[in-house]
From TrEMBL:
Highest taxon in the source lineage: Eukaryota
Name listed for the protein in its UniProt record: Peptidyl-prolyl cis-trans isomerase
Lineage start: Eukaryota, Fungi, Dikarya, Ascomycota, Pezizomycotina
CDD domains in the record: WW
Residue span(s) of domain PpiC: 70-181
GO cellular component: cytosol; nucleus
Keywords: Isomerase, Rotamase
Amino acid sequence: MSSPNETGLPEGWEVRRSNTKNLPYYFHPETKDSRWEPPVGTDPDKLKAYMANKHSSTRLPNPASFEVPEGKIRAAHLLVKHRDSRRPASWREAKITRSSAEAMEIIKDYESKIQKGETTLSELATTESDCSSARKGGDLGFFGKGDMQKEFEDAAFNLEKGAVSGIVSTASGLHLIQRLE
């Protein structure tokens, strides 16, 4: 178990790994409370550093090791939430208070860095995405038509393999999407 000083979590909370989703989550053994988002009182900078070092994986599966399911694509994304998002909380922040304009500035900066080749979507998603898929470099796995929000789905299905979308707005927040398969 890691100390609160290392994880940034409030006293009594720890990071565990889900057996079913193989993703980290937050657990308080005394109260038996568990959640995907960090508890109130978390230090987001310490948690971000801890999760990047201990619980993230930017390694994507070898494409030769599986077949693409018919009618499905595989994509990764980087999500920036704002206070008007349908769930204004994430693994990085228990309560997201930034405005949609502030979120737009943040994601424009990420988009610029990716376009300039300074970083990849997967690298940025690992530490900056407000989605739990950050632990997998933003990889959402395979999905078909009707599985995602319409705006997200339309953008993802219209991308060529390897391409990164422009900024896509959904009820969840602002996304950059990369089609993987």
